[in-house]
Amino acid sequence: MQIIKNPKELQDTILNLKKQGKKVGFVPTMGYLHDGHVSLIRCAKSQNDIVVVSIFVNPLQFGKNEDLDRYPRDFERDKSICEKEGVDYLFYPDYKDMYPEGFQTYVEVVELSKGLCGDYRPGHFKGVATVVLKLLNIVCPDNAYFGKKDYQQLKVIERMVKDLNLPINIVGCPIVRETDGLAMSSRNNYLSKEERQSATYIYKGLLEGKKLFQSGEKDPKRIKEAVVETIKKAPLLKEIQYVEIVDKDSLKPKEVVEPGDVIAVAVFIGNTRLIDNMEL
C-alpha cells in the first residue's frame, strides 16, 4: 500500500493507472475506521482493480461548537486496517494541501441540504459537498462508496454528481450495525459504557416505527410518535433533535407513508450526537 499526501501526485498516479485500463474505486473517510468503513472498502475491492481510501478530517463541515478538535484520530491504526484490507493507495493530505492559502470556492446543493441535519448544522453540507467534489477531482474514481447511515449526505453527493455531470458512479452501501443494533460510527467512541447501552434505544425506536408501518399504519405522525416514545426510554437520553419520515429521494416530509420512505433520527445521548435511519 502506498501512502500519498500530495493531491497532484495522487491525481497523476491514478490517471496513469486509468490509461492502463484500470477501474478505480474510492472510499472517502475522516478516519478512525470501523467495520462500516471496512464494508465499504470490501465492496470497492470486489468491484474495482484499484482501491483508494482517503483520510481527512474536513474542518469545513464542522460548526463552531462541534467536535472538530476532539474528533477521534488514530492514523497508525487506520493505516493497519487499510493494509490488512488490501487498499492500494491511502490518501492522507494536510489541511494546506486541501485548502491552500486564498481558497474561496464552495459547492452547495441547495434543496437537499435543507431539513434533517441541515436544520441543525448550518453550513455542514456545503462543507461536505465542497470536500467531496475536491476529493473526486483528485482521485478521479470510476466508483465512489458512501454508507447509508449518513443518508442525507449520500443524497446530497448523488445530486451534486448528477448536477455537475461528473463521470462517477456513487454507490450507497448498507448501514453496518453492532450486534445490538447500534449503527457503527466513529463518534460511538465518545460514549461511556452506560451511554453506549442507552444508545441502543435509537435502533429499537426505528424498529418500532417500521413494525407499525408494516402493520398497516400510514400516518407519519403516529409512526413518529411510536419512534419517539421508544427512544424516550433511553436512560441517558439528553435530547431528541428530530424524528422525520421523508421521501427517499427528495427528503421531503411525507403526509402519507409509503414503502421506500425513510425514517431519519438525530439524538443526543449524553453529549454525543448520533444519527440513524431505516427504510420502510
UniProtKB/TrEMBL annotation:
ATP binds at residues 30-37, 147-150, 176, 184-187. Keywords: ATP-binding, Cytoplasm, Ligase, Nucleotide-binding, Pantothenate biosynthesis. Its EC number is 6.3.2.1. Beta-alanine binds at Q61. GO terms for biological process: pantothenate biosynthetic process. Pfam families: Pantoate_ligase. Its main location: cytoplasm. Pathway: Cofactor biosynthesis; (R)-pantothenate biosynthesis; (R)-pantothenate from (R)-pantoate and beta-alanine: step 1/1. It is found in: Cytoplasm. Homodimer. This is Pantothenate synthetase. It comes from Sulfurihydrogenibium azorense (strain DSM 15241 / OCM 825 / Az-Fu1). The gene is panC.
